[in-house]
Specification:
This protein is α+β, with helices and mostly antiparallel strands and 305 residues long. It folds into two domains: 8-124, 2-Layer Sandwich (D-amino Acid Aminotransferase, Chain A, domain 1); 139-290, D-amino Acid Aminotransferase, Chain A, domain 2 (Alpha-Beta Barrel). It has helices at residues 28-32, 54-68, 76-90, 164-176, 220-231, 243-247, 277-290; strands at 8-11, 14-17, 36-37, 40-45, 48-52, 95-103, 117-124, 139-143, 181-185, 191-194, 198-203, 206-209, 235-238, 251-256, 260-267, 270-271, 301-303. Strands 8, 9, 10, 11, 12, 13, 14, 15 and 16 form a nine-stranded mixed β-sheet that branches. Strands 1, 2, 3, 4, 5, 6, 7 and 17 form an eight-stranded antiparallel β-sheet that branches. Helix 2 packs across helix 3. It is globular, with a radius of gyration of 19 Å.
Length: 305
């Protein structure tokens, strides 16, 4: 999806013009995939642009850095405010934010001890990741031939830039085969997550979502949707699921900051009822919540200006 430039990008404490926000070709993370990042959305609300669960996203960024052993030069409140400043500066009522921490220019080689950490935050308009009709018509999914990372190979709990080569391979395999998205299994053959979303599968009166032990990222949108499900009397359990569970599901949907709540209409060409009743209820509830229309969770909408 093409990026529409905004006036500035926050880089190491300063607002830099979009065109000048560049790095050196020998930037360490460019070569070794040693950065960490987040994806965050700001939504238009009655009170102005609000960044959804901003603090939790920045805290997860720090957790990713801790897993990687990356020192962070700014604290959480500083980066929370920087994100707000970027949104306010953009003039946008709704946008996508990308904070990234990376080892910069000055040292080369696998060891990172002598490297300094640089941080940048950009914002730009970005629509529905899986398409504007993903809620109503659903998306076609393919089980990927690529296995999701193991915890002792590339820690999946960290949103590390290098980890996403795995996701890109899965995503492109699916797109090139005519599908919209990939579902990834772990080394034991159990469902982990999609290339960029958590997955929830309904069977009977219960919705199941894979645990982090399966290789799934601890999803902030996933947690949000599970909270909404509880409010609507919908039971969600965390537990292992086999590939065959996807083929016999009553409904399937995927969730993530970029994808929001998107329905699934088939897996490996096996049709899935779409959109299912839980998907419709939770997609509508999520759309209202992120736009400040749910007083119970208003504290999750952090105003940018």
């Amino acid at each position: 999806m093409p990026i529409t430039p905004t006036p500035h990008i926050w880089m190491n404490g300063e607002m830099v013009s979009w065109e000048d926000a560049t790095i050196h070709v020998l930037t360490h993370t460019l070569h070794y995939g040693t950065g960490v990042f987040e994806g965050i959305r700001a939504y238009e609300t009655a009170d102005g642009p609000a960044i959804f669960r901003l603090t939790e996203h920045i805290e997860r960024l720090y957790n990713s850095a801790a897993i990687l052993g990356m020192p962070m030069p700014y604290d959480v409140p500083t980066l929370v405010q920087a994100c707000k400043d970027v949104v306010a500066d953009s003039g946008l009522d709704a946008c996508y934010l990308r904070p990234i921490a990376y080892y910069g220019y000055g040292e080369m080689g696998l060891a990172t001890g002598a490297c300094t950490t640089d941080i940048a935050i950009a914002a730009w308009p970005w629509g529905a990741y899986l398409g504007d009709d993903a809620v109503t018509k659903g998306v076609r999914m393919k089980i990927s031939s690529w296995t999701r990372h193991d915890h002792n190979i590339m820690p999946p709990a960290s949103k590390t830039t290098g980890n996403y080569a795995n996701s890109t391979l899965a995503k492109m395999e699916a797109l090139n085969a005519g599908y919209d998205e990939a579902i990834m299994l772990n080394g034991a053959g159990l469902v982990s997550e999609c290339s960029g979303e958590n997955i929830l599968v309904a069977s009977g009166d219960v919705i199941l979502t894979p645990p982090t032990s399966s290789g799934a990222l601890p999803g902030i949108t996933q947690h949000t949707v599970m909270s909404l499900a509880a409010d609507h009397g919908i039971e969600v359990q965390v537990g292992d699921m086999a590939r065959s569970d996807l083929y016999t599901a009553d409904e399937i949907f995927v969730v993530g900051t970029a994808a929001e709540v998107s329905a699934v209409n088939s897996v490996d060409d096996r049709p899935v009822p779409c959109p299912g009743p839980a998907t419709k209820v939770l997609a509508e509830a999520y759309a209202d919540l992120v736009r400040g229309k749910n007083d119970k969770y208003r504290h999750w909408n952090e105003l940018a200006r």
